[in-house]
């Protein structure tokens, strides 16, 4: 018998300012949801032309950017650069140090570039690894339809209904599923035992939990599941006016202390001080920051 994962809490991700003129709805990494290893932060961002995330450093974490609308350019001090479009993802491992810029496309109609950015902690033994990038294009992501095609699951990483994403894109094992449920549709999604998991509702209203014990969750809300149990149930009321779309994300908890200061995520206060020193003195991974400026970030310099 499958045991449903109980819901620990549901809360709204409130919109706030971030970066240079960007708007984000942050759910993971707020007072509502901290210390949810391996997850450090989840931002649902909306960045209009003229705003963005100019040159900034990172150490000790991985960032996963999933673009929903528009395009985002990235560029770093190692000469890596590229663009992701709708449905594409970028996995960036900061490791011992990276400095980069992430800038939205200047859409001629003035529309915003919308997506999710998830920060995942790195195991202590990999904190000082070499930085790396992997891009995952929309057409590389397998998908599966279930419940008479009323449920569509994009298997970005992990497994769903016999479909395996095949790719290991992050050092810390993480599953990411993009699920769309039409009115009257229902889905039962198994998750690895003991992994921390949450769902973030992008559109519509979804009912989470087993029949008779369901919680209705609205757009922009985060649903945090208890670690016990092996399956998440979700459905959309048959009388609903529109489909619901949510991302279901799960990851293996890391048994380590998290000491975070802005873009540096390490295991002790001393390591954070060291990261500041290394960044300021351009050593121990930040050598290439010396004199570096991104081309794409210059549009923000007034």
TrEMBL record:
Keyword Iron assigned: yes
Record domain Pirin N-terminal: where: 22-120
Record: residues binding Fe cation: 56, 58, 100, 102
Keywords assigned by UniProt, alphabetized: Iron, Metal-binding
Listed Gene3D superfamilies: Jelly Rolls
InterPro entries given in the database record: Pirin, Pirin_C_dom, Pirin_N_dom, RmlC-like_jellyroll, RmlC_Cupin_sf
This protein's record includes keyword Metal-binding: yes
Cofactor(s) listed in the protein's UniProt record: Fe cation
Sequence ranges assigned to domain Pirin C-terminal in this UniProt record: 177-284
Name under which the protein is recorded: RmlC-like cupin domain-containing protein
Protein's organism: Lasiosphaeria ovina
